[in-house]
Amino acid sequence: MRYIQNFLTTSNDVETLVNTMWSLVYITHGGESEIDEVLQMDIVEDILKCLKVDSRQLKNATLKTIGNIISESDTQMQFLMNRGLVELVYPLLSDSHKLVRKQAAFVYCNLLAGTADQVKEVIEWGNGQVVKT
């Protein structure tokens, strides 16, 4: 896990970031304890930064990682929501790449399956922009 953290926090090479993110996709698919281990690595900000990189492959892998994290527990979902997840994923709903739009919609579907307060936060974000989209 230390290597994943190192690659994600220090690399500027998109291919390295994509491969690192795919590693996180597989790790976070393992379950709640694996996700907790990833969240404790203090790399969430670096994961979220990858959503802003102009790379379809990186955005796709990042959204899959995020989808895995938020689908496991409401606590893990809230952890990412507290770091601006709703706002960061919103522009990707209109990305030029269909697969990125699909993964962004998947993330929002997971967000809307959260607690009542989480659903309310998503719906009310940006004066209801998500729902209007």
Model description:
By secondary structure, the protein is mainly α. It is 71% helix and 0% strand. It contains ten helices and no strands. The chain is globular and about 40 Å long. The model has no long low-confidence stretch (mean pLDDT 93).
Range of strand content: under 5%
> What is the average per-residue confidence, as pLDDT, rounded to a whole number?
93
- Tell me the span between the first and last alpha carbons: 37 Å
Give a short account of the largest sheet.
Answer: none
Distinctive features:
single chain, 133 residues, mainly alpha, globular
Q: What's the short version?
A:
It contains ten helices and no strands. The protein is an all-alpha fold and 133 residues long.
Secondary structure elements and pairings:
Elements: H1 2-10, H2 14-28, H3 32-39, H4 44-49, H5 56-72, H6 74-81, H7 85-89, H8 98-111, H9 116-124, H10 129-132
